[in-house]
Fold each of these.
Amino acid sequence: MIDWLIEAIIPFSVLASVLVLARVLLLPLVGSQTYYRLYLFLPLSLILPLINIPNWLLTPDSSLQVQKVLVVANEQLHRYSIYDLAFYLWLTGFCLFVGYLLINHLVLIQRAKRWQPIAIEGFKVEGLHIRQSDDVFSPMLIGLIKPMLVIPEEFNQHFSKEQQTLILEHELCHYQRNDLVWNAFALILLAIMWFHPLAWLAFRYYRRDQELSCDETVLARKHTNCRINYSKALVTAAQLTVPIGFAQLSFKEYGDKNVMFERIQFIKDNPKGSVLISLVVIGAFLMSLSAMSFAGPNQAVQGKKAEHIMPIKRIEPKYPKAAVEQKLEGSVVLKFDITSSGDVDNVSVIKATPAGVFDKSAKVALKQWQYQASNAGMKNALVQLDFALSKSSELAFKQVEQIKVTRD
């Protein structure tokens, strides 16, 4: 798990930074609908490390100088390391956050049992239950399995008929787009990346842009007076609402005054967004993902002979527990670059036997190796790590530099 997070944190951080920092500039240019959809790239960035795309066209280049060094590693399965500590720390935070969400959701369910079912004239949606409650101060859509729209008791007194219709259309937009489901996925993503400040910022703006996109849908082709009345309804809702701690899977943004002011300003400016700019931005995000996914594995091997650079520090790979239990041995051929300072960069798997068993362990170890400093470093160096269950194991994977990893 930690290996995956280490590999995923860079693409996730890059995309989250762009979404948060470029929001003020891009949102008016592409529109809230397009910008809301850009958040889909965040979960995609976490999938990148799980996609193993070997470069079958790349073979060891005899022109590269490769050392023949044998390293025997002792068994590490029962030894606590920094990765073990990091995993348990991450798992603790993940469980606490998920537990907090579940408790809040159970509180919400218990409160919902007391809410009175009502019918709204002219508003009936298949599968959506409508209830009235004094626990809420503005309309709120809640529930994953049995969605319900909760209306405050004084809804009719505080809002005009036109305002009521627009607010209900807004909640209906959330329901029809399955935004509650998307919010659940977003919270799972936030639970996984709970330690990352950018994850919290991205989630915050994701919810804001969710509201803006619904406003844009509701007010599309509406006249000016209708837009003004809707803005007044947002102001009224902001004045009436107090923060609600239990509604993590609901839409409580009516009570956030900062969100309300941004929504009102967005309604006033009414940015249309450019289709051309939207396509360019989406294309840029796709190319960024592609670059982060394939930059390492798909680089061509340089033909010229590299200078001889000696390793000065090697980190022993961990033998995967699942491989020990299944009594698996194997080999991983890795391609990597050595910077002028001696650091290892752009590690990628060229060939793994068996595929997907030892890849991550090999990559994590190699990234921590240190080589001698040099003028230009080295591009496309090759190393082979042989994983053996014992020192006496005979492996037939002798192609390039061999690092033998054993259990005892």
Amino acid sequence: MSRPAAAVNRVIKAYDVRGLVGEEIDEHFVSDVGGAFARLVRDEADPGPDRVVIGYDMRASSPALATAFAEGVVAQGLNVTRIGLASTDQLYFASGLLDCPGAMFTASHNPAAYNGIKLCRAGAKPVGKESGLTTISGEVIDGVPSFDGAPGTISDRDVLGDYGDFLRSLVDIAHLRPLRVAVDAGNGMGGHTTPAVLGPLASITLLPLYFELDGTFPNHEANPLDPANLVDLQRHVVETGADIGLAFDGDADRCFVVDERGHPVSPSAVTALVAGRELGREVGGTVIHNLITSRAVPELIAERGGTAIRSRVGHSYIKGLMAESGAIFGGEHSAHYYFRDFWGADSGMLAALHVLAALGEQDRPLSELMADYQRYAASGEINFTVADAPGCVEAVLASFGSRVQSLDHLDGVTVDLGDGCWFNLRTSNTEPLLRLNVEARTDDAVAAIVEHVATDIRAHSERSA
């Protein structure tokens, strides 16, 4: 059946498929997406893959949607391997292990009413707007053609233990001192994968928080990028005397870190730490960082003898550059961390293992260890809901006048004000927002730039209302 283009394009976005269950996404829709995806991967190679691996998160709608997607795939003649409940990086692992395309049913950190699909080719290679999603959208809009051959089959495989073994094999954890590790799974898939990955490590005492799988997120949103959702973990770390706190988002592909004092650790600092460890194994390697990460990241990469490549925000861009450059590692300000040895895909759990290894192989507390990687003050991401994003950006640029040292438009606009001060303004790829990130040498300098930009945005919005 054909579908309205506007409705399809509202759900099939730049990086994934995502929308309100029942209103924008239902079983019939995802069955068509499954069929279109099967046709895409089957027809672009000879011989094409013989199967698609499917995983899903803890949302109530996920099992039924995953089943409908599987029906669309097998109707196109491909087999399906179901791995059941999984984190997104566990699905990527299965795609790499089985060398086949994959589909993960999750809406990540979005509220319970949402669901979606993250798609990848064999070896966890990304499928984004420019690498397949537009083709899938077109077929869903026009109607997915039927397949004349025999339908595929559906089978089940448990890969959770293999996933844990594989991640541990990538990090030298032989010399860890005893560590008390607080983990806030946010009722998401971290509650499923953390015991499998960290549980077998005798030197680690797990201090779990919200490990019960519950797609209604009864305790807080599973979005640690919002500081409000870290509060429970910060308190838990201090109350339990933990050496470190880890927080995962809903599908557990992102990991945020809290030090022993309950203070959040910047994902840029984590990027720099992991980059240094990977460069210690491969001197002269290339590391990708997006343009929002701290400028401390490329500085530290250069100091460790590596080559830094700056990227747009978003996993499809990072993964593309990883493949083109042969980069050993990539990091984003949003706590996505990418590893060449993990098929170039992102894994928050693998990044967590690196941080635990770095902490456990020396005696300093985490706050002192991470101070080596924190050189600047930063605002974090600040979102503005605006009707005229281009007009707001123009107003901001005009107001800074001669203070602007340079501009670039790799992703939104990045404004260099000199003396270590810069900010980036960009529109969201997934939400109607204008995003601001600011970095400077001091907290006061950051606050001044944030206030300046926010005042300009408010003033323009009021004038154009």
Amino acid sequence: MGRETCQSGKYRGTSKEIVITRFRKDLPRMPHHTASGPEEANADSLSQQIVGCLQRLIEPSDPPAAAVSRPRGRPAVLSSEHLCLAVLLALLRGLKSYACVWRLITWSGVGHFPLLPHTRDAIRKRLLHTSLDVWQRLLLRVSTGLHAQTQAVAQCDLLPWVSHIFALDQTTLDAVQRRMQDVRDEAVDSPRLLVGRLAALFDVRRQQWVRILFREDVFANEKLLVQDVVRGLPAGSLLLADLGYFSFPWFDWLTDQGFFWLSRMREKTSYQILHVFVQQGTTLDALVWLGAYRADRCAHRVRLIQFEHHGKLYQYLTNICEPDRLSMSEAARLYARRWEIELAFKALKCTLGIRVWWSCDPLLVLQQLFAAFILAQVLHALHAQVAFAAQVPLFDVSLPVLATLLAQAPTRSGGQPLIQRLLEVGRRQGLIRPSRRIEPAVPALLRSYTPAPPDLPTIRPPRYAHRVRQGRSDRPDFVPRFFTFIVI
């Protein structure tokens, strides 16, 4: 083949060899349907915006003090930020193993970090030598960095006189596979395969995790160590909890600590009516003593809210005893927001994939758990920002669809910011759509409220029935593979 000239440059050689000798930089741009090389990649693409956002959150704003006097030995080629960002990207993109983390570091690339020629075993050893303190500091750094953004879009109109609103609940984590020597001979349903339980607080206004306790005992009651989860919260906070935390000592302790609480009423709970604000058929708003008998009774008086809707009786208890501060409809709508922590647990397990553990090594399992919580903080913050920018209710924005769009972000975005691009394609991609959440309906009251007399007692001597709880005969004895600690 003789000398040949094309539009993109000059070529010469034979049929076996083509050598590029010159490339003209002043040529017109190639059409949009032509495949582009890496040099034409959009530096402001959505996928790079997402990676850059994660990288800015995990990298320390100030250089560590150890950088001034470098310790002995060769500096690590693979930094902890590089490794953590690779794990976060693997979780976000729905990858299924630590081998995918290795491929990101050595093949696909992670942010502005260079490609490294590490082996798969070297990456695993590096993960095993990474302390959980690194991940814990990273989670705290991300949560602190997102505080200003989430506070700007917080739902402050939700009971504004309360300082904070938290949902309290716990969940059991799924089991690991039997791939290590210490669990290889365990039965499929062995409790040693279960990772543990999470007891957590979720900020309803800011849509952020604020307190997480990891518990090794998967059979323990919800009320075990619950005071450690709540202790240290700002006074005047409101806690929303389900029936697993229903307890007279627990209610009294919360009131003594200066917290407000709202709970459902457990069946067959005895009470004594002190004052009736309003009663209309099955609708009742009254002040009561919990525990009508001397053997078991609550110290502080509480408020009972009761109404019927579609044949179902709803009963709520709270220590907010003034109807003008919390109406019946507000109490019903507010308690419905407790479901948001259940959806947040679902996002951790299904959307961020911690129902399938990448390893059965305890350290690697906990590292994946930390990474999932870091991504969850970012995902919930972006969820609230999209809803605020679109001027729609929070749950008109689909959190699973948002995670899918972030995982499959295009490499070309026309230079648009991430939020603006999500708003532009939100309705077309199913990100913004009408929510199917059912709003609780409280019957209209035809009678006026009767105020409580000023001399009505507010406290009495408590007496708690310390029942002897016998262990379940079918509960197996086991030695946990994990340990109890505070995640955040």
Amino acid sequence: MVPLKYNVRSLRARKVGSLMTIFGIGMVVWASIFAFGLSSGLDRTLEIAAEPLDVIVLRKGSTSEAVSAVTESAAREIKSLPGIATNSDGAPLAASELVVFAYLPRRGSEIKVNVSVRGVDAVSRTLRKEMTIVEGREFTPGVREAIVSRAMANRFQNLGLGDKFKVDGAEFEVVGIFEAGGGAVESEIWTDERVLAQIAKRTGAMSSLQFRAASVADQERLINHIKNDEQIDLGALTEKQYYAEQAAQSGLIKFVGYTIALVLTIGAMFAVANTMYGAIASRAREIGTLRALGFGRLSILVAFMLESLLLCLAGAALGCLAALAVNFFLGGIQTGTMNPGTFTEVAFSFDFGPKILLQGVILAVVMGLIGGFLPALRAVRMKVVDALREV
């Protein structure tokens, strides 16, 4: 086999061309990591929100809480079913919740978008154990007060601590800022369910009922019971299933991200191939000499493939370091998008974890293998006599 140091010296001898290719591949890997990180960040936000034993009850056929309705009588009936977990006082861990929209402008823009406002009861916080007030205080039940996630406070006007915003013409004051570990609840505003129901003229019904089952067996039995009860005419699914369906509705975002990564990768492959073709054309006599010294076609092929991979791995390292540097200096990258199922804003952070960085490295390896194969094949097909005659 041709020694690896031959490839390293060859790259060093063509510094300008090698560095240009490494930089180009690094930019492609960098952009692809951002595309992968966006898609993974959105999925992660929805996955974090799901508690294994929690169940969401909606109107049959509803795709989200925003278009669902559960009557108070049906909610009372479900809360009385055996198998629902209870708190220390013996009360069922079941919360009646109402979701409506506020129409709010993003910061630095006059364009308004739908933002989810969730009316909650006393049990709702128990069902979201990851939620913590980091500034201000809890809202007071029965009063037009609200708490807002830090992500939404940073993205929207009138949602800072002490600010006021309107829902259906009624004014609410922001009295607290919360964090929830990056889960889907960080895309919401929380207030008292009964106050919100009066303003939205939704008294007597809520959007959903969320409860925690005592065990996996109880969860399955309760879901089947609710689905088969024709009198209440409701559907039920695990919280994990609910958020998986919400993530599936955001498939367009993933499609766009991966399409961009594919187009950039194809362009980078041509760049790698062009660099390697140039290297082979200028080193025909070297190739002939290696063949004359007894190195076989397979050894030559492997040598040039390794050279292509070295270029791409160096580019992958550059791209990964650049992505991590941007994320570090910005203190994490947060953004938002519209949920196609609810037409509301979903706030999430880009994911730059090991899995995403590994995807970037794998992408670079694919570039090296595909982009370097044809030039390497051309090198091994050279006749020794013709190669030695090249100037």
